[in-house]
Specification:
By secondary structure, the chain is of the alpha+beta class. Helix content is 38%, strand content 38%. A six-stranded mixed beta sheet has the order 2-1-6-5-4-3. The termini are far apart.
Amino acid sequence: MKKTSFFLIIALILIGSAQAMSHCDYLETCASRMPAVVKDADSFSICCLVSKGACAVQTGDAESMISLWDVDSIQYPYDKPMRVGRAEIWRAFAVELGRGEVEFELMQDEIVVAGIHAYVRGRFSYRAKAGAEGKESSLKGKFILICRRQADGTWRIYRESSNLDAI
């Protein structure tokens, strides 16, 4: 009972402080995943971090997306060269995000916290319509994120790798 109350209090505090992001339900997504992947305050924070990233992709907000990444991040995107450092990852987000109507969903299947690092394992689906003719593309795949605790106690994405499911 105490564990449930603890998470409810955290959720209410975070929801109250996130009214400005009403265009995205990342906190609702975190709260709905609590029984499956959230075991403590750190995993709840990481769940919200990942859900904020999904929101940034959905809304095409490259600024919000890059704010979630550690200064020493490395990204291993599918079908593209490795991106080293926040500046290089930012350049890619600035080009890739916000190019049409997007539906993006992340399913977080596992969150494991170990000291200053944690990993998130999950799946994603992405559907986009781009251009005047509304050309549609869709992708499904899986990802793994390694997060690192910052000096102030918050979490940021440290490493990311994803790949596509066979069609």
